[in-house]
Task: inverse folding
């Protein structure tokens, strides 16, 4: 059974930083693209970022490019999302995701695995 678990959310002031972590079990971590979605209050879930299975390719939403950095450590079966220069509009529930490719995750996500989410709140 695939399990995806996020951690690292919290409350931070605007301009601050947070680092989210995510571990995945029940799948061959090194064979999967990993990513992050978020769902702001009252809005649809949106893609934040994705990293290929090898870490050689990354994708970012325009709203976070230059502020967020996705990375992974396959030996530790863990991925990370470093979030800098946080803004109140970054407030959302953040979900870790796993899928075979970033393309599948972003355009289809029928077979995407998600975690339970971790709350990020940015105060102004």
Result:
């Amino acid at each position: 059974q695939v399990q995806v678990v996020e951690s690292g959310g919290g409350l931070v002031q605007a301009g601050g930083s947070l680092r989210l972590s995510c571990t995945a079990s029940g799948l061959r971590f090194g064979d999967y693209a990993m990513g992050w979605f978020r769902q702001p209050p009252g809005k649809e879930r949106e893609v934040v970022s994705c990293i290929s299975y090898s870490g050689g390719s990354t994708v970012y939403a325009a709203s976070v490019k230059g502020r967020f950095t996705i990375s992974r450590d396959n030996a530790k079966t863990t991925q990370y999302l470093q979030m800098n220069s946080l803004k109140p509009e970054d407030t959302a529930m953040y979900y870790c995701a796993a899928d075979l490719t970033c393309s599948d995750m972003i355009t289809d996500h029928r077979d995407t695995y998600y975690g339970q989410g971790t709350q990020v709140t940015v105060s102004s």
